[in-house]
Structures are given as C-alpha cells and as structure tokens.
Amino acid sequence: MAAKRLPEIAGSASSADIGAQYFTIRNPAFRSFLDQYAGRESYGEWSGIFRFQGADNVWQQLRPAERFVGIPRMTAITRALSTSLEIKAGIRIQSLDQGTGGLWRLTDTDGGVHDGFDAVLLTPPPAQTEELLKASRLDSLANDLNIRISRLQACWTVVVRFPTGTGTDISGYMPNSRLLHWAGNNSSKPGREDEGEWWVLHGDPDWSDANTETDPEEVRRQLLDEFLSISGITAEPSETLLHRWLYARPRARTGPGHLWFDDHRIGIMGDWLEGGRVEGAFNSADGLVRRLESLGLVPAPQPDAEVQS
Ligand SMILES: Cc1cc2nc3c(=O)[nH]c(=O)nc-3n(C[C@H](O)[C@H](O)[C@H](O)COP(=O)(O)OP(=O)(O)OC[C@H]3O[C@@H](n4cnc5c(N)ncnc54)[C@H](O)[C@@H]3O)c2cc1C
C-alpha cells in the first residue's frame, strides 16, 4: 500500500500509489476493522469507469465492485492504523533468538537488540521471512515454509504525468497485453489535487519477471509505448518515475491463511498466505489473531470494548 512522492509542480507536491491500486471489501469484519481503527475519513470509494480487455481483444466493463483507496493517498490508511500503536519504523530485523526465560530477542541490522517478547509474529514477504528464519537457525521452520509458499512475481511500475490531461474519462485499463497488466489514472482517485493527470502503469507479472534486469530506460519506454498504443491516448507525457517491485504478486490465489508454530511461539502472516491483495493481508492477520485468542495468548475482545488510544 505504498505511495511515492511526486516531483513538485507549480510549488506543490503530491504522491501516487505505486503498489496496490485499490482494494475491495468482501469480509464485513474488514470493513468494521477499518472504520473502527483507521476511521472512515482515511479511505473512500474510487468510482470511475474501469475497462477490461478479454482474450478476443474486446473491451468490456471491469466487473462491478466497490473499489476503495486511501485518501489522499494509499498510505493514509496504514498511517491512521498506526497512530495508537507503538511502532519502530526503519529497522530491519536480522535474527531472532530466545534469551532468559525463553522470551524472544530480536537483533536488527545495526546491532540494536529488542528483548522480552512472549511470541513473534512475522509479516515480511516469503523470501525475507525465510531469510530471517534461516539467519535465526530456525531451519525447520524455514524448510516448512519453503514447501508451502508460492513464489511472488515482480512488477515494473511506471508513473507518468500528462500535464494537460489525457482526454479519456476511463480511470483504469486492464489490457490483454504481454507487457502491461494495468494502467490507472491516479489523479481521478478521491482527494487527489494534481496539476494535470498522473497515471500508474504496472507491468505484466510474467513480463516483469523476465525483465527484472532490463535497463530501466528501456522498461519505461516499452510500458509507456504500450499504454499509449492500447488506450489511443495522443497527449504528450512529461515527467516519469520508475519503481521495480521484486516481490509483488503471489502466483497462487489460495493459501493456508497463516502459519503458527506452537513449540516456538512464532506466527507468520501476510497477503501471500491468503492469495495476495490488501484484504488477503487483513484476513491472514485476522485468522492468526483468532488462533492466538483461542490459545489464550491475546485477550479476546470484549463486545462493548472502547477503542484504546
Ligand atoms: C505492484 C503491486 C500492485 C498491487 N495491486 C493491488 C491491488 O490493486 N489490490 C489489492 O488488494 N492488492 C494489491 N497489491 C497487494 C497489496 O499491496 C498487498 O496485498 C499488501 O500490501 C500486503 O500487505 P502485507 O502487510 O502482507 O505485506 P507488505 O505490505 O509487503 O509488508 C511487509 C512489511 O515487512 C517489512 N519487512 C520485510 N522484512 C523485514 C525485516 N527483516 N524486518 C522488519 N521489517 C521487515 C517490509 O518493509 C514491509 O513493510 C499490489 C501489490 C503490488 C506490489
């Protein structure tokens, strides 16, 4: 749910969502969670025209759904969710070990030690989770992970500005293309106040995988050309930004939800264990928390409990 700061235009700078473009809410518990902990003002519906191109190359309406985004950027949601929590950002945990009394101790890459935890819940993508477990001499957990996880695919991302607009009223395209998976008008999302239009282009997962080491200039040119060609947009683009996601989308659409290793008191969660997507990340975490509640490791919520702040 990342946003990238855009170059300053006419004295003001905004940002574009370079990862998740929008999310859907199918699980009512997800909506209640967002409303209660992030607040209704941190997200809203992105209503617009979304087109999908079938294998026969015919453009159709993308299936109807409520599509939600953070306001004024995707990160508004995670920012709002973090306000009542103690979070240490910018720290990379390198290894875990059990200190006095069997409590977990975490060591970061700068040698900092974070001590005294009953349990550890890991949320990084699978490759980093596996690396962390191996560095912690938890090979049996890492090996167990290895057979369960799906590989994540890369995603090249181009953000491009059209200073005088594109002239299209379509907010998102999903073309039948070998190169391009998605193109969305970021400026058409609620709460964005951009000069001109900023579009976000996502490369096809297989194409991105095959081109992770391709010259970024070449990637930019190919994705932009493909977008202009499939959309028929003739407006002149100006600024562009590029981002390479190495771990973007899981191949598998289903998964075990979460993992819990009772002997070690280590839990693993993340969207990649629940078919990808923002709601998958929530469902994965929700499943693990329910399990911890049933084990008495975290208190079950009281029906009338007030939100702690
Ligand atoms: C290009 C792209 C497009 C997407 N489009 C959509 C979409 O349209 N709709 C949708 O629903 N979903 C989409 N997704 C998926 C969505 O973004 C994810 O499902 C969601 O962000 C996953 O959340 P998460 O918390 O499981 O993992 P992440 O968001 O990956 O969070 C993992 C965190 O762990 C941290 N970390 C890693 N290693 C360590 C370590 N050793 N120590 C400490 N911290 C560590 C990372 O820095 C990161 O902050 C997209 C993703 C990408 C990349």
UniProtKB/TrEMBL annotation:
Transmembrane segments: none annotated. It comes from Marinobacter daqiaonensis. This is Amine oxidase domain-containing protein. InterPro entries: FAD/NAD-bd_sf. The lineage of its organism: Bacteria, Pseudomonadati, Pseudomonadota, Gammaproteobacteria, Pseudomonadales. It comes from the Bacteria.
